Amino acid sequence: MNNDLILLGHGSGGRLSHQLLDELIIPQLSSVPVAGQNDAALLNIGGIKLAFSTDSYVVDPVFFPGGNIGDLAINGTVNDLAMMGARPLCLSVGFILEEGFSKAELARILASMREAADAAGVAIVTGDTKVVPKGKGDRIFINTSGIGAVEHNLHIDGASAQVGDKVIVNGSIGDHGIAVLSAREGLEIDSGIQSDSAPLNGLVADLLPLGPALHVLRDPTRGGVATTLKEIALQSGVTITLDEKSLPVNPGVKGVCSILGLDPLYVANEGKLLAFVAPEQAEAALAAMRRHPLGKDAAIIGEVTETSAGKVQMETLVGGVRGVEMLAGEQLPRIC
């Protein structure tokens, strides 16, 4: 393998992505340490606390069960802001269109973006459009950036996990990745699997009353739950222990993963969050999630068990313990 070339795996959100960031991109452009690498930057401008985030979407196909690249782009940036405990305010939208792309399909994507923005309560305030020659792009790529207001004094980030914290997820994992894969490969699976793409800012607003007991929020997108937990473990310097029997997985997703040899822990999500909550408030957090439509299947899936250099492990169904690492390579390319 030529180590001087960019591979698909560098866009996976897993180990190769982190190597690219840590060895090349961040040293050249910034000086953000591992502990500070969160879903959005926190800014203090004249005493006003803001969160700022940006993301690009290259999903293939652009239409999939449960959504399309348009609502995905809105929800993704809304969620990145929400994971910092911010109230999303406004977004920018940038399009790169390939010559020959259907205006009717673009109109459909724009309509879904407008609907998603309205559902999240955010305004689209600026943007840009470029067109590249046919064959020089892939139909449509979208970038969204967003600003949110941080209206509390809580310290919510990936470096704040504490020993004893319970790890809660708001529902079944892997739905988005398998929905996109099924559409891409033309899999005729009568399972009703749909993307879970959704804005999570309302659910986060219901968790903020937990106050200082709420330590970490993160949405497990590229690389799935496993990679996200490994990131948090490294940022916080802790060991996270999962309980395999507690992991909520849609039976259809479980079936497809079994057939294709995939692990749901590494499959992308677009409407799920992981919350690390002090043990004395874990049941209250679980109850708050379950009262919200996007959290009715919430479950406690593990806990922070000790300090360490950053370790994730899982107690398996057969009673053993296995290590859980970041996604290696690219399990499902072009998933978001």
Automatic annotation (TrEMBL):
Gene3D superfamilies: PurM-like C-terminal domain (3.90.650.10), PurM-like, N-terminal domain (3.30.1330.10). One of its GO terms (biological process) is protein maturation. It holds the Pfam family AIRS. It comes from the Bacteria. InterPro entries: HypE, PurM-like_C_dom, PurM-like_C_sf, PurM-like_N, PurM-like_N_sf. Residues 162-313 form the PurM-like C-terminal domain. Residues 38-150 form the PurM-like N-terminal domain. Transmembrane segments: none annotated. SUPFAM superfamilies: PurM C-terminal domain-like, PurM N-terminal domain-like. PANTHER family: CARBAMOYL DEHYDRATASE HYPE (PTHR30303:SF0), HYDROGENASE ISOENZYMES FORMATION PROTEIN HYPE (PTHR30303). NCBIfam families: hypE. Belongs to the HypE family. This is Hydrogenase expression/formation protein HypE. It comes from Geomonas paludis. The gene is hypE.
